[in-house]
Give the backbone structure.
Amino acid sequence: MSRPIASFRKNSREEVRVSVDEFRGHELLNIRVWFEADDGEMRPGKQGIALRLELLPELREALERAGQVSE
């Protein structure tokens, strides 16, 4: 089961998709780079990360710190 959360363009041929997926009975936050294949279809690539939902607060904190660095 996959529940799409968000997506945004990375560049002209790739996008980042965020979803909540189930794997072996565990819900995971999946952040994956999708690419446009030669046939024009979007396919998931190897680049990405999958985390247990329990780690979401730690990821959120890390992203907030990263946002402060870029300001």
